[in-house]
Specification:
- The chain is mostly helical.
- 67% of the residues lie in helices and 0% in strands.
- It is built from four helices and no strands.
- The chain has helices at residues 2-22, 27-34, 38-45, 53-63.
- Helix 2 packs across helix 3 (38-45).
- The longest helix is centred in the first third of the chain and has 21 residues, at 2-22.
- The two termini are 22 Å apart.
């Protein structure tokens, strides 16, 4: 179970990085737009931080996407 959990965090982080770069946002840009600290964004993108639903919603708002885009 632990391996799958780590893989899912890594996949989510990679998706976040792709979406952020598609918008030509730096991590600092996304911090300003979402209210999520840049160091936390880095940890999420690298699969090193667990994410709460409210964080996912804030990131989606910062990227101007629907929350479900992270899971497609």
């Amino acid at each position: 179970m632990e391996a799958r959990y780590k893989k899912e965090l890594k996949n989510f982080g990679e998706k976040l990085r792709r979406l952020r770069k598609q918008n030509n946002y730096s991590q600092l840009d996304l911090e300003i737009r979402s209210g999520i600290d840049r160091t936390d964004i880095s940890k999420i993108e690298n699969g090193l931080k667990n994410i709460e639903l409210r964080t996912i919603i804030k990131l989606a708002n910062g990227l101007n996407i629907k929350t479900e885009e992270f899971f497609k």
